[in-house]
Design goal:
This protein is mainly β. The chain has one helix and 24 strands.
Length: about 325
């Protein structure tokens, strides 16, 4: 029986970066499951498989399709490690959804592969869900030196721009105003990229890590140079790039973990650090469970919840 619980980590500690310790073997295992929408198995979708690397980052290692397969996806050869899954439908009307039934990377569940895993099933969110239409980007584009008929610092009007997901699929296409200002809203709250599509100018996409805590990126400023597009306020690009590194973010309030689950029957929990060492463990009771983490060090941890012979990992970062 799979234990579904709501787990929230609250902490007030200094930030710390830690390397992820991953065991590995030459053995291959099978990883698969089903994707559904509105309670029905869904065909014509793609599942992306990400493997966790060092420092909390992940790498896309494989993808699987399902066409007329009754909603089933299979990765037949997966080595030991920690993985994350994302499903995306070929049909309109659905958001990319991570395993754990969330459209937010930081809330996705980790899949620990050490043997042939049981089915990992998840359901896709619809586009018109409450997760859609609340993100926005605002800012300005100006001309640099060398543009005939335009002064340096003048607003660059009617410049094409694009918001796309991390797989390159366009989400929003828009232009600056006559004064070079842009304001694009109704953006799904997912990790995505922003591009300025100016002919002959190269640009590194600006990654926007939308999430429930950050729904708006304001005061973004870009300058058109002779060969490239430059972001003026570098602090913002550093923040957005950090947000897009697919790291699990903090939820900083108080020093405890709360597990609410009324289906637990003599379950147990373990809080494991990145080296696989158990730092806290104990029993879980039906209903409300409050676990103090005031004395543990900042870093990346996994909460292992075991119930009726099954176990799941939920990854959290303590700051």
């Amino acid at each position: 029986m799979f234990c579904v619980c709501s787990l929230v980590v609250f902490a007030q500690k200094d930030n710390a970066q830690n390397a992820i310790f991953l065991r590995s073997s030459n053995a291959f295992y099978r990883l698969g499951g089903y994707v559904s929408a509105n309670g029905l198995l869904l065909d014509s979708f793609k599942v992306y498989l990400y493997r966790e690397q060092s420092q909390g980052n992940v790498e896309l290692v494989d993808s699987a399709y399902s066409i007329h397969q009754n909603g089933e996806y299979i990765f037949p050869k997966v080595i030991e490690g920690i993985y994350y899954l994302k499903g995306e439908s070929f049909k309109a009307g659905f958001l990319p959804t991570y395993y754990g039934n969330t459209a937010f990377w930081k809330e996705s569940k980790a899949v620990l592969v050490q043997a042939d895993n049981r089915a990992r099933n998840f359901e896709l969110f619809e586009t018109n869900s409450s997760l859609n239409g609340v993100g926005a980007v605002r800012g300005r584009i100006v001309y640099g030196e060398g543009f005939i008929g335009h002064q340096q610092g003048e607003g660059a009007g009617f410049i094409p721009m694009m918001i796309r997901d991390l797989d390159g699929k366009p989400i929003k296409v828009f232009k600056t105003t006559s004064l070079g200002e842009f304001n694009c809203d109704e953006i799904p709250l997912i990790a995505c990229e922003m591009l300025i599509d100016f002919p002959g100018k190269s640009m590194v996409p600006i990654r926007l890590g939308f999430n429930p805590e950050r729904t708006t990126f304001e005061n973004l400023e870009f300058r058109l140079e002779t060969k490239e597009v430059v972001q003026v306020n570098r602090t913002t690009v550093d923040e957005t790039n950090e947000a897009s590194n697919m790291k699990i973010g903090p939820n900083p309030f108080n020093d405890f973990i709360r597990i609410n689950d009324y289906t637990l029957h003599n379950g147990r929990f373990e809080l494991v650090d990145i080296k696989g060492v158990t730092v806290i463990e104990g029993a879980l009771e039906n209903g409300f469970n409050k676990i103090t983490i005031r004395d543990i060090q900042p870093g990346i941890y996994y909460m292992k919840i075991q119930n009726l012979g099954t176990a799941d990992l939920i990854k959290k970062m303590v700051h």
